[in-house]
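Q: Structure for this?
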Amino acid sequence: MAERVYCPNCRELVETRMESRVETYPVKGEDVPVSATVRVCEGCGEDIFDERLDERTLVLAYEEYRKRKGLY
Ligand SMILES: [Zn+2]
């Protein structure tokens, strides 16, 4: 399902796709690898910031951090 969002790079509404990739997020001074979902512009291929996706990634990073520390 394509959703048109504004791309600051293309300066117009563009088709986007979701991409999964491993990113590292700093949690309490530690780099935690997390499988992030990012929105990518079909026009220029640049990442487009998506607040909801970013929040979700952050939650996953904290979960991963707790797992690593055996805090479950
Ligand atoms: Zn673009």
